[in-house]
C-alpha cells in the first residue's frame, strides 16, 4: 500500500526539482566583432568556438559573428597570424550581449626554404654533368 505512494512521491520530487532548475541558465545571443589590436581592420573569417558546446562560427567580412551561449561559457577566438584569445560569458539578465574582441598579432620566424628547379638530387647532378 505504501510502496506506490512512496514511488509517486519520489518521482514527483525529482520532476519538480528538474522543472525549477530549467529557468536558471537562459540562452544568450552573443554578438561579437573581431578586430585587429590597432582597431584599423576587421578580421573576416575569424573562428569563434565554444568548446563546452562543441560549436563554433566564422565571422563575416566585417568580423561579426553571432552565437547562442550560456552564462559561464568560455569562447575561443582564432585567426591566422594572430594570438588566440579567450572570453568567458558573464552572468547577466540581458538576453543579447555584444562585445568587440581585439586580437594581437603573432609573428613567427620560419626556417628558410630553398626551391630548386629539379625534383631530385639525381636530376640536379645530371643537369650539371651533361
Describe this structure in words.
The chain has a single domain, classed as Immunoglobulin-like. It has 130 residues and is an alpha+beta fold. The strands form two sheets. The chain has a four-stranded antiparallel sheet with strand order 3-2-5-6, with no helix packed on it. Strands 4-1-7 form a three-stranded mixed sheet, with no helix packed on it. The protein has two helices and seven strands. It has helices spanning 2-21, 121-129, and strands at residues 28-36, 47-50, 55-58, 64-69, 74-78, 85-88, 96-103. The model has no long low-confidence stretch (mean pLDDT 85). Helix content is 22%, strand content 31%. It is elongated, with a radius of gyration of 27 Å.
SSE order: HEEEEEEEH
CATH class: Mainly Beta
Treating each run of at least 4 consecutive H or I residues as one helix, how many helices? 2
- What fraction strand? 25-35%
| Biggest sheet overview | 4 strands, antiparallel
Rg over CA atoms: 27 Å
Show unreliable segments: none
Query: What would CATH call the homologous superfamily?
Result: Carboxypeptidase-like, regulatory domain
* Strand runs, count: 7
- Structural class based on helices, strands and sheet pairing: alpha+beta
Distance between the termini: 104 Å
Q: What would CATH call the architecture?
A: Sandwich
* Tally of domains: 1
- Average pLDDT metric: 85
The order of strands across the largest sheet is: 3-2-5-6
Tell me the helix content.
Answer: 10-25%
What is the name of the CATH topology? Immunoglobulin-like
Identify the overall geometry. elongated
Amino acid at each position: 500500500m505504501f510502496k506506490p505512494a512512496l514511488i509517486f512521491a519520489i518521482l514527483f520530487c525529482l520532476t519538480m526539482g528538474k522543472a525549477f532548475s530549467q529557468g536558471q541558465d537562459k540562452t544568450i545571443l552573443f554578438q561579437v566583432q573581431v578586430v585587429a589590436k590597432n582597431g584599423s581592420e576587421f578580421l573576416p573569417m575569424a573562428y569563434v568556438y565554444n568548446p563546452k558546446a562543441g560549436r563554433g562560427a566564422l565571422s563575416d567580412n566585417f568580423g561579426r559573428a553571432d552565437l547562442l551561449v550560456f552564462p559561464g561559457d568560455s569562447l575561443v577566438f582564432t585567426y591566422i597570424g594572430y594570438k588566440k584569445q579567450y572570453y568567458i560569458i558573464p552572468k547577466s539578465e540581458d538576453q543579447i550581449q555584444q562585445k568587440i574582441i581585439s586580437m594581437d598579432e603573432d609573428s613567427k620566424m620560419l626556417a628558410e626554404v630553398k626551391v630548386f628547379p629539379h625534383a631530385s638530387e639525381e636530376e640536379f647532378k645530371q643537369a650539371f654533368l651533361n
